[in-house]
Specification:
single chain, alpha/beta, four-stranded mixed sheet, 7 helices, 33% helix, globular
Length: 223
Amino acid sequence: MQSNKHVIIFSHGFGVRKDARGLFTDIADEFHDVGKVMFDYNVFEENNNTIIVRPLDEQAEVLREVLLETKKIYPGAVIDIVAHSQGGVVVALSKPAGVRKTILLAPPVDMNFDRMVGMFKSRPGTLIDMNGVSRLSRKDGSITLVPASYFDGRKNIKPMELYEELSNTTELIIVKASEDEVLGDTDFSKLSRVKVLNIDGDHNFTGEARKKLLEVIGGIVSA
């Protein structure tokens, strides 16, 4: 049991680790008196630099367990969630209870299969196998293994409906990247109870966009 009165849980995106590209670690460093909870949805094999992706329903169950454990470790604490990209879909699927604010960074508006696979198809070493295990080559040299069960599980997911439902139980803020090279232009205007903020930057909010993002999140979490 710990005494922090405020805790942030971080939910990372597709096929990466909890500290991918330094996004969450940079955010966490901004909050010195806040408890931080980071964890991996996927299985990492360090000896061959490979990540094995869990299906989305299993990821949602992992988050539920993390939330329950966090409440035990920090009883009575205010809990916020910061999620990036597909991590926002996982949060919505988990239907978290007892979360004050949820901040989604560059979340998808749909689960477009062609767009997702298209990013990897041209890279040497990538193999798409819808009946077995797909092998995706990443820019950093790592490999992501994706079982068919992951693709099957995302077919009928409608992120916008999930976000709307999520906004019934938590204050929901979406931070949109205006130059998102992964998702393209995203439109959240149909969400009725969601605050949408825009930052000029790429999908991972690199460079100057990272500095602006830290300011924005600081203001949201501290309010």
